[in-house]
Amino acid sequence: MGNLDIQNRFLEDLSVSADYEKVAAKYRPIFEKIAEGVVEREKNRILPYEQINLLKQAGFGALRVPVKFGGDGVSIPQLFQLLIELAKADSNIVQALRGHFAFVEDRLNAHKFESQELWFKRFVQGDLAGNAWTEIGQVKIGDVITRVTQKGNQLLVNGKKYYSTGTIFADWVDLFAYDETTDQHVIAAISRHASGVEVLDDWDGFGQRTTGSGTLTLNDVAIERDHILPFDQRFKYQTAFYQVFHLATLAGIAHAAVATFVHEVQKRDRIFSHGNADLVRNDPQILQVIGKASSQAYASESITIRTAEALQRAYISYFGESEVKNIQANNDAELESSQGQVVISELVLDLTSQLFNSLGASASTTAKQLDRFWRNARVVSSHNPLIYKEKVIGDWEVNREPLPFVWQIGASPKVGAA
User: Fold this and answer.
1) Would you say residue 133 lies in a domain?
2) Which domain holds residue 176?
3) Residue-wise over 337-368: b if at least 16 C-beta within 10 A, else e?
4) Are 246 and 208 found together in one domain?
5) 2, 277, 309, 358 — which has fewest CB within 10 A?
6) Mean pLDDT by 10 residues, the chain (418 residues)
């Protein structure tokens, strides 16, 4: 924790560090099982229900829950280190768990003022949370159609979300909505199994195809008042946390791509007449391709962990006594996660394309699904547009214009204006 001024009463309630190898040893056998079927799932678009259930049963969703409450108590850098390992096995599963770990992080922060033991217990017993924030179509930017209303003595939620990543596998839904009873934006923690909840597997992207990112429809779903959480109390480094999830996913994709192409090079027995060796594995130009890709994967992981350390400082500083230090830590987390996105996205997109230079045209066969690395990286990198991230980083560096901690997407007000 360094010299950060943490109030002693919070020490045992924080997740600051764990024995990484001990924790990882518990989950690595599951990662190996997950990796065994990844090509078949990719080829036939089979959702990983069984694989995610194995993680649930092992308590993976409680990685960040403090040891005091039955979790593993890992730090944020340790969480993302383990997620990189999982992403190497199947990047889709990491993205499917993105909403869950963000919801857990929010509850960890909320524990500062109000006990979250009930939620911690749910996470430890295996409950997962899905994500449902985005509305598509002609929803104007700044508007939220999903609403909480009151009918008699009952609070009800109605609406429709797309990109509901991971919700199809989950027990709870981290839902962004507008509460008409209090006139504020909220997070509604909806039971995935409640009456009126419908989840469709209709995501049609060319990459990350088994993340369960389809449509969520809510028709008069009952909710308790204590499951409605004011959005303005959401943990401050949430945007950076979501972004670093993508960085961990990309780093895992990079490592998986390098390992897979290395295996293909090692076993390849066809050579070109104008090549440089009697075996492809000894051709210096092929080795150069592999060497560069390996270095790019290394850099991607290193930058991801560096950005995760900034998140950890933001988490710890929230429980300190200095508001100034907390603001600075959150600014650092947002800036570093943005800078990491710009660099890692380009590194991984490049290496997943250039690796094909180590093989011949046979590498394009759909049986091997070698294109999945680029396809998945391209889709992950399409979140949070790079050009806008580069712009806000530059605006911060030159003009000290505040970074956008919260931003939205929606239909332009100019649409239909004519």
Assistant:
1) no
2) 147-233
3) bbbbbeebbebbbbbbbbbbbbbeeebeeeee
4) no
5) 2
6) 50 86 98 96 95 97 96 97 98 96 97 94 97 82 89 94 92 95 95 95 90 93 95 94 97 98 95 92 96 98 98 95 92 96 97 96 92 96 91 96 83 66
